[in-house]
Design a protein that fits this description.
By secondary structure, the chain is an alpha/beta fold. It is 44% helix and 19% strand. The strands form four sheets. It has a six-stranded parallel β-sheet with strand order 3-2-1-4-5-6, sandwiched between helices. It binds NADPH dihydro-nicotinamide-adenine-dinucleotide phosphate (NDP). Residues 6-146 form the Lactate/malate dehydrogenase N-terminal domain.
């Protein structure tokens, strides 16, 4: 068998962590022949809860789980890490201004970026889940100058999966018939799920839908506000589907995307599609050999252009705000 891969999960005692860790241990993150060693990072007051989760992981008797370490220190958490899932973040609480939220997250993602820079393995891949994910990823990246910038990614896969599911429902077709969905921009209410480049059974998805009213007034807001719909229904946030999307994101990054399809990832812009270079924005990407590439040459119609510009404008504002705070 292969040597274990080190996977670090921050905020491991949280809701998403609880749904995520068992799937990593069972081999769904990296593959059924790849042992994993888990490193769980928590804040000191949540270490005990993380230890409780570790007892349950032990009780899973997972053949691929080579070990679990629980730490409250970022340097230890990222030492030798190959895959870093940054889930823990400071949630926005009532009355909190955006500046306060960004500053609180700067206090988390700056030291984590520094620790990744200092100790992570050369092949480290980083996925930021904790919100505001795109800008948190930007902060971490800014403090890891020795790590190739493109290794820092933010999760928009849950939005991507939500968009696939809603479109499949509208067309009365299985999700597997739909390819080339794209989420553009920020993982926020301004995100733009684009069906104009999507395909259903090889034909244009937008033509199959042929309903601009549904697109503008049902599909896009529903995908963007799905988190709130789930909190309303469940009385708790969408932790299991978020964990599922994190698994999908890393799995495809490591193992590749299927031929003739792509996925959405928040990645540093190279200037493609007019997105300012360096912003961590969601794009359509294909993954091959452990690396990803932004899909080039897609047609962007006027409707899509204005939606992408709005979301990218928000990302630019977030970047300027963290710059002003001295976080990047
Ligand atoms: P969750 O596990 O539910 O969520 C964690 C983060 O993921 C939040 O920032 C949340 O953002 C974000 N997120 C992204 N997508 C989703 C989604 N679809 N649904 C829900 N959340 C989503 O939070 P908990 O409060 O249960 O757990 C957080 C844990 O992180 C705690 O145990 C805390 O101690 C820990 N923590 C650890 C840190 C560290 O390791 N250094 C630092 C800070 C916290 P949003 O709130 O916007 O939904």
């Amino acid at each position: 068998t292969q040597a274990p891969v080190n996977v670090t999960v921050t905020g491991a005692a949280g809701q998403i962590g609880y749904a995520l860790l068992f799937r990593i241990a069972s081999g769904q993150l990296l593959g059924q022949d790849q042992p994993v060693r888990l490193r769980l990072l928590e804040i000191p007051q949540a270490v005990k809860a993380a230890e409780g989760t570790a007892l349950e992981l032990e009780d899973g008797a997972f053949p691929l789980l080579a070990g679990i370490d629980i730490v409250d220190d970022a340097k230890q958490a990222f030492d030798g890490t190959n895959v870093a899932l940054l889930v823990g973040a400071r949630p926005r609480t009532k009355g909190m201004e955006r500046g306060d939220l960004l500053e609180a997250n700067g206090g988390i993602f700056k030291p984590q970026g520094e620790a990744i820079n200092a100790g992570a393995a050369d092949d480290v891949k980083i996925l930021v889940v904790g919100n505001p994910a795109n800008t948190n990823a930007l902060i971490a990246q800014a403090h890891a100058p020795d790590v190739p910038a493109e290794r820092f990614t933010a999760m928009t896969r849950l939005d991507h999966n939500r968009a696939l599911a809603q479109l499949a429902k509208k067309l009365g077709t299985p999700v597997s018939d739909i390819k080339k969905m794209t989420i553009w921009g920020n993982h926020s209410a301004t995100q733009y799920p684009d069906i104009f480049n999507a395909e259903v059974k090889g034909g244009s998805a937008a033509e199959a839908v042929n309903d601009q009213n549904w697109l503008e007034n049902e599909f896009i807001p529903r995908v963007a506000k799905r988190g709130a719909e789930i909190i309303e229904a469940r009385g708790a946030s969408s932790a299991a589907s978020a964990a599922n999307a994190a698994i999908d994101h890393v799995h495809d990054w490591v193992n590749g995307t299927p031929e003739g399809d792509w996925v959405s990832m928040g990645v540093p812009s190279d200037g493609s599609y007019g997105v300012p270079e360096g912003l961590i924005s969601s794009f359509p990407v294909v993954c091959r050999g452990g690396a990803y590439e932004i899909v080039q040459g897609l047609e962007i119609n006027d409707f899509s252009r204005s939606r992408i510009d709005a979301s990218v404008g928000e990302l630019t504002e977030e970047r300027d705000a963290v710059r002003k705070l001295g976080l990047i």
